[in-house]
Amino acid sequence: MRFTASLLLGVCLLSGTVYAQGRGPELATPPAAEPLPMPSPSAPPLNGPVVQGPSVMAPPYLPQAPIAEAVVTSHYPAIPVSQRNIRYAHHPTLFKTRSPEHVPPLETVLLVEDPCQPGCMVAVPVCLPGCCLDEPITHSAVGLLGRGFVTYRYSCGYRLKLIFDRDGDVVVHSFGR
Q: Span 138-150, mean pLDDT?
């Protein structure tokens, strides 16, 4: 009995029909709109800051819709990125190299596909010299022991070698500057 009454109440609410006690179904009608109060012509002028109210007032029987926020869309599809333990090793060159102008280093995140697990992307934060502004030449391979290697070579001579271990750890070797 309880289920039938709640089901009937739900159907009545969805159909917009209101049942009053002792009366039949009536169509739900909004309340009559009241006229907005008008200021009297003899009211003193405002001396403080004027605050503007809402320009359109919704009737009280309508539910208020949430305010839409700006949606940022990306041109690239969302890719799941796995978190790994990352170690860094820097191997400086024996000779001193100079860049044409002193530019600050670039802190960036490389999104690298694990060669051992195709389709698994890994976010690797690195700090590149300021001269590494061009597109690097990349090479990836899987070694005999099951480790994956990804190499980034820049035209300025800087090189990154990422080694993916079988247990998921990443070692980043940087060569140069």
A: 91
